[in-house]
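Bumping my old thread because nobody answered last time. Still need a sequence for this structure:
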């Protein structure tokens, strides 16, 4: 595996790679003979950076991310992050689902980064590449230390997840919410159980995810729902959209944001192979719908967005609550080592 080549520049930039994220000698690969991890290999590494800058061309509404894992046992057939495994010479199909990179020192790296004089407390997004509350987190427990570091520096952050394990960290999330802006979103694209079983086989059921929304709301932490992905011809029927938005409203979500399926390289090939096996009659329709690239046509996206927003209004889902002002405790002087931190790398 090409561990030494995982840097901030993709392979086709034609530039020499001079700042590897970690070396091959830092990798320990493990397997666990337990039902939840059978067939999964974990590559434990000591990363050299953890706060990643999002490329300027990205459509993401944030600039900085933290990703303690690479690869994801959720095994969502549409996952846009699949292509990131290619930089490690790992398979973007089954390999992405079963070869999981674990950044063992993520909490310590983050605390060091937040202490740097060069860091100005910008918002950090998590769960935007792969899910930080996938099953591996139950074993490695990296997120409590990450959230504690963000809490201690009153650094605003957000988490997007399909995992119910986030409720384990409810106490520290509440502590963080007392001193900084904390945004939580749960991803629920549909409530159709048959569709869920085939396209998101490693995730908790949609109703369990909505239980997370309800529990967070009951704990005083507002939680929105990213209704993603809306899957063309399989999850976009008006009755399906209505059932999903109704369930989201009943769970007490503060907001709902629809996002139509997009098929980037790596994900596109895997998803289209799945489609040919399970719904061969839809292959030509998908080829036409996504003929221009990774995203569905604007007219289709606007139609879905309009339908979901109308349903949200009907079921009384309001806008997200206004963010509370950030309260930053006085920082102690940081060390020279923190001030001379190396440049952070981009993983997206």
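Sorry it took so long. Here it is:
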């Amino acid at each position: 595996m090409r561990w030494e080549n995982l840097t901030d520049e993709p392979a086709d930039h034609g530039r020499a790679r001079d700042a590897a994220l970690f070396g091959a000698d830092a990798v320990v690969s493990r397997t666990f003979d337990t039902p939840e991890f059978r067939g999964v290999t974990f590559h434990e590494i000591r990363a050299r950076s953890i706060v990643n800058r999002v490329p300027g061309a990205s459509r993401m509404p944030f600039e900085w991310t933290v990703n303690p894992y690479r690869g994801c046992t959720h095994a969502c057939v549409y996952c846009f992050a699949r292509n990131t495994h290619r930089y490690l010479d790992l398979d973007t199909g089954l390999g992405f689902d079963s070869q999981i990179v674990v950044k063992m020192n993520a909490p310590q790296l983050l605390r060091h980064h937040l202490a740097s004089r060069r860091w100005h407390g910008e918002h950090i997004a998590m769960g935007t590449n792969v899910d930080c509350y996938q099953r591996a987190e139950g074993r490695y427990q990296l997120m409590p230390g990450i959230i504690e570091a963000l809490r201690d520096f009153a650094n605003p952050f957000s988490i997007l997840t399909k995992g119910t394990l986030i409720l384990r960290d409810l106490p520290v999330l509440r502590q963080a919410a007392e001193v900084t802006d904390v945004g939580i979103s749960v991803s629920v694209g549909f409530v159709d159980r048959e569709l869920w079983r085939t396209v998101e086989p490693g995730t908790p059921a949609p109703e369990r995810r909505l239980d997370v929304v309800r529990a967070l709301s009951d704990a005083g932490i507002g939680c929105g729902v990213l209704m993603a992905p809306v899957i063309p011809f399989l999850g976009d029927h008006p009755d399906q959209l209505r059932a999903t938005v109704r369930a989201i409203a009943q769970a007490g979500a503060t907001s709902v944001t629809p996002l139509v399926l997009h098929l980037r390289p790596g994900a596109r090939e895997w998803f289209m192979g799945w489609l040919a096996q399970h719904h061969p009659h839809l292959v030509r329709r998908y080829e036409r719908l996504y003929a221009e690239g990774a995203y569905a046509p604007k007219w289709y996206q606007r139609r879905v967005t309009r339908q979901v927003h109308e349903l949200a209004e009907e079921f009384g889902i309001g806008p997200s609550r206004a963010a509370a002002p950030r309260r930053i405790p006085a920082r102690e002087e940081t060390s020279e080592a923190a001030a001379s931190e190396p440049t952070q790398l981009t993983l997206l």
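Confidence is low (pLDDT under 50) at residues 4-21, 320-348. Let me know if any region looks off to you.
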